[in-house]
Write a structure and sequence with these properties.
The protein contains no helices and eleven strands. The protein is mainly β and 128 residues long.
């Protein structure tokens, strides 16, 4: 049974920082990513990382402010969020991709349909 457990969300003032954590149990993955969904909006890609090569991918809206990383020993992924803005307010979801033969993750990392497992979400609220 695969479980993804997120933590680290909260309330922060604009310009502040938060660090989200996602710990996976049950499997090893091809990649892990973070998505977010603001109230009344569709879920959108934030960042992703491949487990074997540590290649990273970011949405334009967070590039330069957010950093995704991993800890193999803990089977965990992290999202360091700096210079937070009110528009970053959303529920943040961790997601994971199972290993697949001949799969070009680098071409599809932004699509939620690629991800096999999802966490329960953690709220991030940035006040102005």
């Amino acid at each position: 049974q695969v479980q993804l457990v997120e933590s680290g969300g909260g309330l922060v003032q604009a310009g502040g920082s938060l660090r989200l954590s996602c710990t996976a149990s049950g499997r090893t993955f091809l990649a892990m990513g973070w998505f977010r969904q603001a109230a009344g909006k569709e879920r959108e890609f934030v960042a992703a990382l491949t487990w074997s090569t540590s290649s990273t991918f970011y949405s334009d809206s967070v590039k330069g402010r957010f950093t995704i990383s991993r800890d193999n020993a803990k089977n965990s992924a992290y999202l360091q969020m700096n210079s937070l803005k009110p528009e970053d307010t959303a529920v943040y979801y961790c997601a994971a991709v199972l290993p697949r033969f001949a799969f070009a993750f680098s071409a599809r990392y932004y699509s939620s349909q690629v991800y096999d497992f999802w966490g329960q979400g953690t709220q991030v609220t940035v006040s102005s």
